[in-house]
Amino acid sequence: MGLAVSLYSTVTFEPNQSKLTITDCPQRYQNADNLIYKAFVKACQFLNQPVPKVKISVDNQIPMSRGLGSSAFCIVAGLKGANAWFNEPLSQTQLLDLATEMEGHPDNVSPAIYGKLGVSFIDSDKNVQTVHFDVSDKLHFVAMIPNYAVSTEQARKILPTEMSYKDAIYQVSHAVALSKALEDGNLSLIKSAIIDRMHEPFRQQLIPDYQKAKNICENSHGVMYISGSGSTMMAITDNKASAQEIFEDIKKDFPDWEVLQLNVDNVGATVEVTQEVE
Ligand SMILES: Nc1ncnc2c1ncn2[C@@H]1O[C@H](COP(=O)(O)OP(=O)(O)OP(=O)(O)O)[C@@H](O)[C@H]1O
Ligand SMILES: N[C@@H](CCO)C(=O)O
């Protein structure tokens, strides 16, 4: 499951004199290994088109390795950039397939492409299946982004390799009920359905401030979950005043954290063409 929230980065693709120029991102990503460029190249190759000389500028608002899908953003941006360059030959489904192949799973790339709450899986024919839920606009989200990263690799390693039948039943029923609770904006159902046995009990060890942040959210009648593989924790409330209270309390106790009040995005990544490529 993945939820698209209103946190946006913008990538600009322009014709260039030399093979590749990348600006406005850390020096170590200003080369052909940049994930946005790799996705751009992947789409060109899929379309049997020569890779154009391109200048890529990044206005990045999505912090890296914080569980907010920064790698999914890069992949979707690169694929959609190339698709726009060649006048949109790829369907959303083809974009999803290519993005899933690059990210390794559809959880984050589906909401990045389609917006909303996406529930996705890879079926027995290796096709990506994804369905979407409209999330109630009664719900408010507060992203609490620690000033430390959690590597996805480490967050995967800390998980057990097996789960009991009892926990699997618990988890499946809770996940399905959670989708409906988010659609209905039913906070009391969200509170019980979101209690997870699959990753939070293990991954919270990697986030030293997990319990303190959770207490702050619960004191203001909110509920909290670990976003992606962490370190970001996301609060959900059903009123603006609670969201504001959580925002202020987290800011007070963790002045070095980035705290953002967000909504659900219902649209996914968008493209604006400002210059036709000849
Ligand atoms: N602005 C960027 N420019 C270039 N590469 C980036 C950028 N943002 C993210 N990346 C790439 O994505 C990687 C981070 O992916 P990772 O899966 O560790 O974190 P995440 O996607 O933020 O977290 P999660 O998958 O839990 O939501 C970076 O190591 C880098 O390769
Ligand atoms: N769903 C993934 C997100 C990280 O990409 C995980 O929790 O491992």
UniProtKB/TrEMBL annotation:
Superkingdom: Bacteria
GO biological process, one term: threonine biosynthetic process
Principal EC category: transferase
Domain annotation GHMP kinase C-terminal: ranges: 180-255
Record domain GHMP kinase N-terminal: where: 34-116
E.C. number(s) listed in UniProt: 2.7.1.39
Keyword annotations: Amino-acid biosynthesis, ATP-binding, Kinase, Nucleotide-binding, Threonine biosynthesis, Transferase
Any one Gene Ontology molecular-function term assigned to this protein's record: ATP binding
Keyword Secreted included in the entry's annotation: no
Name of a matching Pfam family: GHMP_kinases_N
Protein name per its UniProtKB record: Homoserine kinase
